[in-house]
Design goal:
The protein is an alpha+beta fold and 373 residues long. The protein folds into 3 domains: 1-25 and 256-373, no CATH class; 27-37 and 186-252, Gyrase A, domain 2, CATH 3.30.1360; 41-179, no CATH class. 24% of the residues lie in helices and 34% in strands. It is built from 7 helices and 21 strands. It has helices at residues 2-23, 29-32, 63-75, 202-216, 237-247, 336-345, 350-362, and strands at 27-28, 33-35, 41-50, 91-100, 109-116, 127-134, 140-147, 153-156, 162-165, 170-179, 193-197, 221-223, 228-231, 251-252, 260-264, 269-272, 281-285, 288-299, 311-322, 326-330, 369-372. A 6-stranded antiparallel β-barrel has the order 3-4-5-10-7-6. Strands 2-11-13-12 form a 4-stranded antiparallel β-sheet. A 3-stranded mixed β-sheet has the order 16-15-21. Helix 1 (2-23) packs antiparallel against helix 6 (336-345). The longest helix is centred in the N-terminal third of the chain and has 22 residues, at 2-23. The chain starts with a helix and ends with a strand.
């Protein structure tokens, strides 16, 4: 089991080495960065689901459901007396959420998620009524309506027992929302555009700006910081689209990532980056195991004895097994493979390797960031 765990560490380390080896290959700008302003936007709205088979909100415990139903009916000229308290169980108040994609145009469709806000038992078979979806600025960008698709289901017995699979109080409406307003993007305005790296890195930002200048001309791009690269672009939107299409396909050399060691303490998984180096250090590894064996001894009187009784007495045996402490030396500047080979030579488990890495960091012999999750 220990060798298997160590082999997993070696496999992950080898995969990471391949990833770093591939990092030297040039990548397209569209794979390294995104255009600033061309992003998704979160939308949310409050609505009502009707047509439930007696699994809706209990309006006595959720008065906002009744209030919302009254407000909706008033819009259609139906006045519900304020002193009435209809016990409808086929209606539920819900929150509707959606993600507005970049460059979403009016009339396009998108999926929505509907989640119960009250104490409805199930939304299966329900119909969402017309619901406005607002962004963080309070403006309406889409409207949603349609039949819910609920993956959860359940059953109840007469004695109160029940069984359920997945969540019955939430569902989705594929293509259930229509975009009503377009979000402005960098293509709509004059001036330069900005590319933001997915992973901040000063060297990669410099390489990206240099690659654009090499293809599109000197002083076309400038690295603002470790994330942003500002690029001059035509003012005309039509010309800007063709220009950015050419820019995003320019090849850029990604800089080597910082040296990191990621440790999952729960599963024992350890990933060591290819840039990790260790200064000269000596490491000792040994185990002390204590074993306690409990047994019962039975003592009986002799044959034909007139006195005496059967007695059960416990017997304990304690063994201490201490392995020989083995020490190995790590030379200065050793690489990832050297670390793995050294750990494998002493037969250390992933938990022991974590302790070794923490000790090396405490001693200042580890030239990497140790992250334990």
């Amino acid at each position: 089991m220990m060798n298997r765990a160590i082999n997993i560490v070696v496999l992950l380390a080898a995969l990471l080495l391949l990833a770093f080896a591939g990092a030297a290959r040039a990548e397209r700008i569209k794979d390294l960065a995104m255009l600033e302003g061309a992003r998704t936007n979160q939308l949310v709205g409050f609505g009502l689901v009707v047509g439930l088979d007696g699994t809706g909100d209990q309006v006595v415990q959720t008065p906002f459901t009744l209030q919302a139903a009254r407000s909706m009916l008033q819009q259609f000229g139906v006045n519900v007396p304020t002193d009435s308290n209809p016990q409808t169980k086929n209606i539920a108040s819900v929150m509707v959420t959606a993600t507005l994609p970049p460059y979403g145009k009016p009339g396009q469709l998108m999926d929505v998620t509907v989640s119960s806000m009250g104490n409805a038992k199930s939304l299966r078979g329900g119909e969402l009524l017309l619901t406005q979806l607002k962004a963080g600025n309070g403006e309406v960008y889409a409207v949603a309506q349609g039949s819910l698709v609920v993956s959860g289901f359940g059953a109840e017995g007469a004695d109160g027992s029940s069984v359920s699979v997945n969540t019955k109080s939430a569902g989705r409406i594929p293509n259930g929302a229509i975009i009503e307003r377009e979000v402005q993007t960098p293509l709509h305005g004059p001036g330069p555009v900005t590319f933001n790296l997915h992973s901040p890195d000063f060297s990669t930002a410099r390489n990206l700006a240099a690659a654009i200048n090499g293809v599109m001309g000197p002083e076309t791009a400038v690295a603002v910081d470790a994330v942003s690269v500002q690029v001059r672009a035509p003012a005309d939107p039509m010309a800007k689209v063709a220009y950015l299409a050419e820019v995003e396909n320019i090849q850029v050399d990604r800089a080597a990532a910082p040296a990191k060691i990621i440790v999952n303490a729960r599963s024992g998984t350890i990933v060591i980056g290819a840039e990790v180096r260790v200064k000269a250090a000596a490491v000792a590894h040994g185990n002390l195991s204590v074993t306690v064996d409990e047994s019962l001894a039975v003592s009986q009187p002799g044959p034909f004895a007139r006195v005496g009784e059967t007695v059960v007495t416990p017997e304990s045996e304690v063994n201490i097994d201490e392995e020989d402490v083995r020490m190995f030396v790590m030379e200065e500047g050793i690489s990832l493979q050297d670390i793995v080979n050294a750990i494998n030579r002493v037969g250390a488990a992933p938990g022991d390797l974590i302790a070794v890495l923490e000790a090396l960091q405490q001693a200042g012999a580890l030239s990497a960031q140790l992250i334990i999750i």
